[in-house]
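dumping this here before i forget
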Amino acid sequence: MLPDERMEANALLPTRPRAVHGAMTRPDRRDPDAPEPGSAQWWVERAATENRRRPRDGGLSSTKIVTAAVDLLREDGVDALTVRRVAERLDTSSASLYRHIAGRDELIALIADHVMGDIRLARTGRGWRADAEALMHETRRVILSQPLPPSVGRGTAGYGPNTLRLVDAALELFLEAGSDPEQAAFNTTTMIQFVAGAADIQRSVAGRGPLGASRSDGFDRLLASLPAERYIALRTAGAAYVAAPADDVFAHGVAMFLDGVASRLPASDAG
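structure:
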């Protein structure tokens, strides 16, 4: 993990109470024995709690809290993501929010799943491969635009309703293509890990360095300073490596992945 990614991740870790403007911030209120936020059991218990809660017209809800948190992230960045700031945005108290969420870890889990609801699920009418390709590009689009910084929320287990909606759609595609259940599960996991990883790497790189500077600036000088006998292949293909556009690299990865999926299908289903 790079230093600035570590700083972004650490900014979202629960911290000890500290004085702010003469008051104390609240620590995370989550029960230490409670399920990990984002886990399957956590979603089960959260759904049961939400079903028992009687909504009031115009009252606070988890949906309103998450929407406000996402807006706050988009406008002010990750450093602004605190229960207190979200409460201020909703013109209510932190105590009111704590009746819906136990702390920032739960808020992150909710946000991570919420943004996945922006993924548009649509069939192309051109077969499983075209459908899978479209789904991968659409998932990448949403991850690239989501407000949580890389490495934050990615560690949250994907058991929320919106994430499972994506998983279900991918499983359906691969099952219809002819994969058996185990292979469809492996295909789906590999697909999501590739898309999320590629998108997060691109997001990590974006914005680094002076405005307008390329991450490959100075590569020729760097390569010239390295032992020629140790980096023979890099001297041959290094310029193409650093100049490869992210969109083209992703499309190449998608094609390679789908070629692999097709190669494992029964001969009659590989098309």
